[in-house]
Amino acid sequence: MPADLISLDEASWRLEKSGISGRALAELLVTSERLLLGLLPGNELPASLDLSRVTSFHAEPENAVIAGNIRWTEVKLDWRELRLAFERRGRRVSWWFACDITPAFLERTRQPGPRSRFMGNWRPTGQMFPAPAAPQPARRARPEWFADAVFTGPIPPSGQPPRGKRGPKSGKRENTAAAIHKDLKDSVPRRQRTSRANWPPTRGITRAPC
């Protein structure tokens, strides 16, 4: 997965600005290749989320998702790959980086740099990048958007059986294996009892007279 990642919260904010619902995101994620990266409980290294066999999915605020009753945290994704996935489904994501060019952004670019102020030059420097600003709170979609970011179904969208189940015939195979194991277990003591009853062998052996 590419290194240029954004948080799930930031992605939710951009999608909401583009008019894409949380439900649409949930459907896309469970029917696409692995697009998410997150942490499992107790792990330190992130891993990609395989959603091909889950029957339930819910995206939550603060960069968390619940997939198949497992809660992943610190979830991130590649924004470019997400946009392309939506476009392949006929949904255009209208948000792009120019949307972040706000009047406040432009005002910061007109401020003279620190070196210009020290030299007595208070004219705008015309720099393309704004001066460092105070950290902004994380952006995320509204709670209603996350409440709708849910997918549930009787079977996974991929058609593959959920993890831990090998298909409709798995029960028959397990029952057959259990019956074979029981027969073997029951047959061993009988052979042992038969052997002990016939020991020592007497057929063909003549006792010497005392």
Strand content: 5-15%
Name the overall outline.
elongated
The helix content, as a percent range, equals 25-40%
pLDDT averaged over residues: 76
Q: Which structural class should the secondary elements be placed in?
A: alpha+beta
Number of helices: 7
| Overall strand count | 7
Whole-angstrom Rg: 33 Å
End-to-end Cα distance: 92 Å
| Poorly predicted ranges | none
Main sheet characteristics: 7 strands, antiparallel
Order of helices and strands: EHHEEEEEHHHHEH
Quaternary status: single chain
Report on the architecture of this protein.
The chain is an alpha+beta fold and 210 residues long. Among the domains are: 6-99 and 140-152, no CATH class; 167-195. Helices cover 36% and strands 13% of the residues. The protein has helices spanning 8-17, 22-30, 79-88, 103-110, 114-118, 143-147, 170-197, and strands spanning 6-7, 36-39, 47-48, 56-60, 64-67, 70-77, 150-152. Strands 1, 2, 3, 4, 5, 6 and 7 form a 7-stranded antiparallel beta sheet that branches. The chain starts with 5 loop residues before the first strand and ends in a 13-residue tail after the last helix.
Can you give me a brief rundown of this structure?
The protein is 36% helix and 13% strand. With 210 residues, the protein is α+β, with helices and mostly antiparallel strands. Strands 1, 2, 3, 4, 5, 6 and 7 form a seven-stranded antiparallel beta sheet that branches.
Index terms:
7 helices; seven-stranded antiparallel sheet; 13% strand; alpha+beta
Topology readout:
Layout: E1 6-7, H1 8-17, H2 22-30, E2 36-39, E3 47-48, E4 56-60, E5 64-67, E6 70-77, H3 79-88, H4 103-110, H5 114-118, H6 143-147, E7 150-152, H7 170-197
Antiparallel strand pairs: 1-6, 2-3, 2-6, 4-5, 4-7, 5-6
